[in-house]
Design brief:
By secondary structure, this protein is α+β, with helices and mostly antiparallel strands. The chain has two domains: 30-69; 81-134, no CATH class. 33% of the residues lie in helices and 9% in strands. The protein contains four helices and two strands; from the N terminus they run αααββα. Strands 1-2 form a two-stranded antiparallel ribbon. Helix 1 packs across helix 3 and helix 2 (47-53) crosses helix 3 (58-69). The chain starts with 29 loop residues before the first helix and ends with a helix.
Length: 134
C-alpha cells in the first residue's frame, strides 16, 4: 500500500521518523584537498586506498588529481624537487656566457636563462612558478 506523506493518512501510520545529519555532500577545505592529493601521488600509493582512508570515492580523488595537474589545486611539497640537468657542448654560433655561467630552463617551448650567480632559492621559485603554469 502506497501513502504519500503530504496526503491524508490511509491506514495504520502511527509514527514517522526523520533522520538528521549530513546529506552526503561535503565541502573540503582547499588545504585538505591538497594534502589528500599529495598523499595519492606518493610512491606506491593507490588512489582507491587513499580515497577509502578519507571516506571518499576514488573517482572524486581522481578528479582532484586532474585539477592538481592543471594547476587548479595547490599540492603542498615537503621535499625539494629536482630536475634533470643536461650540459651540452657550447656551439660556436652561440656567444660564450660570462665567466659565472648560466642556468637555462626549457619548458613548454619557452626558455628561461638565469645568471649562474642566481641564488638556488630564486631558481627554485622560478621552477615552481613554471610548474604551476602547466
Amino acid at each position: 500500500m502506497e501513502q504519500h506523506l503530504l496526503g491524508e493518512p490511509l491506514g495504520n501510520t502511527t509514527r514517522l521518523e526523520v533522520l538528521e545529519g549530513p546529506t552526503g555532500r561535503r565541502t573540503w577545505p582547499v588545504d585538505v584537498k591538497g594534502r589528500i592529493v599529495a598523499e595519492s601521488f606518493e610512491p606506491g600509493a593507490r588512489v582507491a586506498d587513499v580515497a577509502r582512508r578519507h571516506g571518499m570515492a576514488a573517482q572524486h580523488l581522481s578528479t582532484w588529481r586532474r585539477l592538481a595537474r592543471d594547476g587548479k589545486i595547490v599540492v603542498p611539497v615537503d621535499e625539494p624537487m629536482f630536475a634533470r640537468l643536461e650540459i651540452e657542448p657550447q656551439d660556436e654560433a652561440v656567444p660564450e656566457p660570462s665567466t659565472d655561467g648560466f642556468v637555462e630552463i626549457d619548458t613548454d617551448g619557452m626558455t628561461v636563462r638565469l645568471s649562474g650567480t642566481t641564488p638556488a632559492g630564486r631558481i627554485a621559485d622560478v621552477v615552481s612558478a613554471l610548474s604551476a603554469r602547466r
